[in-house]
Amino acid sequence: MTITKFDKKLNFSNDGQLSLLFLGTGNAFQKSYYQTNLFVVKGDTHFLVDCGTLCPYILDKEYNTKLSSIRNLILTHPHADHIGGVEEIALSAYYISKQPVNIAIPEIFKKKLWNESLRGGIQFSENGKMKFEDYFSELPISRIQKKPFEIYEANIGSINVKLFRTRHVTTRPDSFKNSQISYGLILDDKVLFTADTQYNPSQLNFLLEKYKNIEYIFHDCDLDGFSVGVHASYNQLKLIPEDIRKKMFLCHYNEKVKEVDAVEDGFAGFVQKGLYYNF
């Protein structure tokens, strides 16, 4: 992996390497680090992973990129810091670019996203009652594993994406049924991004064993330690074996990041926004 700095505006194409750029690295409440939304590019393929409430703003303010330029989208779960800007991306697609945004999304999530999050704001227009399909074009996606947790697979251009079900908000750590619908991602079988997840070492070990070519992990990290039923805490993550920690970058943090030396604790470090992580 190499790391390069963002320059002027987002690159919507590159020389064929898989590149990840975190538009922000913060949790839902930490405005100074924005939110943990991610831009991915490889060759002529790009997609945005999540579009939170601050995403349209930071795209324009810091990355000199219009939301209407985004043509492909993946969403990990329906919390506002991850989907709060999706209404705007949908309206931008309809009124500005005038073509639906491509989206890879499991059917169960699509129904929840539309009926419980988006429908109230964008189901009506001057052209009549709107549907999900008026704003989004679904990309083919298939379930390739059911147990011990679901895994879906999609190909967005030249990038292979696997979405694996995570446990995010639940009082029952043994149950996906009773938890917030949420997914992590594996990109080209070499990069694992957990998105928001509880501490789940058995799942992490399973994925690392199944996908042996994973080079680095970008993992959710709560530095406060009080939301263990929601996120993985830093102290929990320190229990992960050293050989895994050393290839693990941490994200979704708050201002306490200034008080912690993740490298000293055996991690690859904290994710920094505005950098391309190239594979």
Structure in words:
The termini are close together. It contains eight helices and 18 strands. It is α/β, with parallel strands linked by helices and 279 residues long. It is globular, with a radius of gyration of 18 Å. Strand 11 and strand 12 (159-165) form a beta hairpin. It has an eight-stranded mixed sheet. The model has no long low-confidence stretch (mean pLDDT 94).
Class from helix and strand fractions:
alpha/beta
Instruction: Report the biggest beta sheet as strand number plus sense, adding barrel if it closes.
Output: 8 strands, mixed
Major sheet: order of its strands? Answer: 1-18-2-3-4-5-6-9
Shape: globular
Mean pLDDT: 94
Tell me the series of helices and strands, N- to C-terminal. Answer: EEEEHEHHEHEEHEEEEEEHEHHEEE
Radius of gyration from the alpha-carbon trace, in angstroms: 18 Å
Number of strands: 18
* Helix segment tally: 8
Helical percentage = 10-25%
Strand content: 25-35%
Q: Regions with pLDDT < 50 over 5+ consecutive residues? A: none
What is the CA-CA span between the terminal residues?
5 Å
